[in-house]
Specification:
With about 200 residues, the chain is of the alpha/beta class. The chain contains 5 helices and 7 strands. The chain folds into 2 domains: about 40 residues, no CATH class; about 100 residues, 2-Layer Sandwich (60s Ribosomal Protein L30, Chain: A), CATH 3.30.1330.60. The strands form 2 sheets. The chain has a 4-stranded mixed sheet. The chain is rod-shaped.
């Protein structure tokens, strides 16, 4: 009987001195998750909060750790696109047409020998400048005579100049002929108005 009472006494004393479950858990946490910060940290593993405590400290005395600083994100400024200067606008130079003037005798449409060098010069210029384009042979008359007659005379003079240019090797397809008759007597003297103006554009 005494022996049985002694064993019961030993068991009661043992339970009284044994650490509780929380103390055992704290002891395990101390050694299982040692930290060097001296503060309490937590983390989530499978939705369970795990407490980490530094070795040698009591669970109730641990001070919560300050929040970890947010990661520094480097801000990269976008590189501006290179500025490409606009190409200068080139306005083609407007060239004035080259003009050669051939004069005629009164009521005549044939080319005089004295006017032949002008035809030669005009033909040479046209052939040396193939980009010149259209050539206009424009016949004129002085103010004497009817409008109808001078329109026809002006056309005959323009056609004579066209043929002379063709004879000098100018392509006939680029030559246009028109008659102004006596509508543009721009000169004071009659002989100056009896003319064909060769426009080379």
């Amino acid at each position: 009987m005494k022996r049985l009472m002694f064993l019961l006494f030993i068991l009661v004393i043992g339970f009284a001195l044994a650490p509780d479950a929380n103390a055992v858990s704290r002891a395990l946490n101390v050694w299982e998750y040692p930290l060097d910060t001296g503060c309490l940290n937590t983390m989530l593993i499978n939705d369970s909060r795990i407490v980490r405590v530094t070795a040698g400290q009591e669970y109730d005395d641990i001070v919560p750790c300050p929040p970890e600083p947010a990661p520094v994100v480097a801000v990269v400024e976008p590189t501006p696109a290179p500025v490409v200067p606009a190409a200068p606008v080139v306005v083609p130079e407007k060239k004035e047409p080259r003009v050669f003037v051939v004069h005629f005798d009164f009521d005549k449409s044939n080319i005089k020998a004295s006017e032949k060098p002008i035809i030669d010069d005009a033909a040479a210029y046209i052939k040396e400048n193939p980009e010149a384009g259209v050539v206009i042979s424009e016949g004129h008359c002085d103010v004497r005579g009817s409008v109808k007659y001078n329109m026809a005379l002006g056309m005959r003079r323009a056609v004579s100049v066209k043929q002379a240019l063709i004879d000098e090797g100018v392509d006939p397809s680029i030559i246009e002929v028109i008659s102004k008759g006596k509508s543009e007597p721009i000169f004071k003297l009659h002989w100056q108005n009896r003319r064909v103006q060769i426009y080379i554009k």
